[in-house]
Translation initiation factor IF-3
Amino acid sequence: MFKNFGRWRNIKELQINEQIREREVRLIDVDGEQVGVVPSKKALEMAYDKKLDLVKVAPNAKPPVCRIMDYGKYKYEMAKKEKEARKNQKVINIKEIRLTPNIEDHDLNVKANKAIGFLKDGDKVKVSVRFRGRQMGHTDMGREVLGKFIEITSEVGTVDKRPKMEGRNMVMYLVPKTE
């Protein structure tokens, strides 16, 4: 009877009307009043008399609980609630900034200012120092660069994960400061 429309895709599908195969169901009326345990055919007739749908709301109960309601309206309300919940959540993006172990001070300040902008926008920042060739023998230089980076960004961000080696990169994460 009802198809799964695109905007309602995430709402879990409930069994309705003829899809309910149980012999007996515990019925809840439109007003929320318990009618009791009735044969499913009688429950379906009661729903059709009121020009509404019979919806199985608790399939694991013994006997399963069914409710008489307007299923289209119910799905619409659930989609609206889900959309509202999505609107209220904050999505945190991870922005990446790449450095080299022998970066100049001015270049470091430019990258740090970019990171400060990301942190003010509420994003996480992944700062990585890439080592090439012989630079792998001087990872302490990369640690110094990240130390300077932390100093510059300390007003708006805090270190989430300390610097550590991941392959040829030394990586750390910064998060915005919470007041």
Notes: Residues 1-11 have pLDDT under 50 and may be disordered.
